[in-house]
Amino acid sequence: MTGPLVQPDSVPEWLRPLVETSGKVDTATFTRFTPPEGTYTRPAAVLILFGEGASGPDVLLLRRADTLGSHAGQVAFPGGGAEEVDEGPVSTALREAEEETGVDPAGVRPVAVLPELWVPVSRFAVTPVLAHWHEPSPVHAVDPGETAAVARVAMSDLADPANRFSITRQGTGYRGPAFTVDGLFVWGFTAGLLSVLLSLGGWEREWDRGDVRDLDVALRDHEWETR
């Protein structure tokens, strides 16, 4: 089931457009990837947790540990694969967020479920769960072996044209959105989701879509800047 989990008028006004739109979008809104027929997929979920800080609405992100076997060092939403104890995508997203960032689920209100998205690299079928952080709790990298850092990133900073550009990877035909904000380099699945959410939520500002950078160069530049 996708769409709102609550009445849109029960959430803060700045979050209302996303809750209202969640039942009107489909997979094609977010990605061009669909699993080939007969492909084995692994169910997973991510928590897109919106709070409100000094700079307005923000979202919880983490940076994966550099030692992980897959997606090492990448910025992501809290989340992961479903387990037998989970009762569905919302349960998976909340459990994973607590395990990775220490967020207290009691202060989190799930408000909408987005369409399932296929991630070819990991073969995960990922369900994004939108939530309102109505009672924020302290967060941190619970297990340094899995998570290197946790941050609340302002949506206004993500929407800042100075922080947005596109990336390509030579020889692959890949092109996608990217962000550099608060010392984080965001690309791939997470950047794609954020890019669409900025638009659907009414936060998007005009930015230079002609600013296209090579992914490998951008990764090296970011590593140098954060030393």
TrEMBL record:
Domain of life: Bacteria
Cofactor names: Mn(2+); Mg(2+)
Nudix hydrolase domain span: 40-175
TM helices/strands, residue ranges: 184-203
Matching InterPro entries: CoAse (IPR045121), NUDIX_hydrolase-like_dom_sf (IPR015797), NUDIX_hydrolase_CS (IPR020084), NUDIX_hydrolase_dom (IPR000086)
Gene3D superfamilies named in the record: Nucleoside Triphosphate Pyrophosphohydrolase (3.90.79.10)
Stored Pfam families: NUDIX (PF00293)
PANTHER family, sorted: MITOCHONDRIAL COENZYME A DIPHOSPHATASE NUDT8, NUDIX HYDROLASE
Stated name of the protein: CoA pyrophosphatase
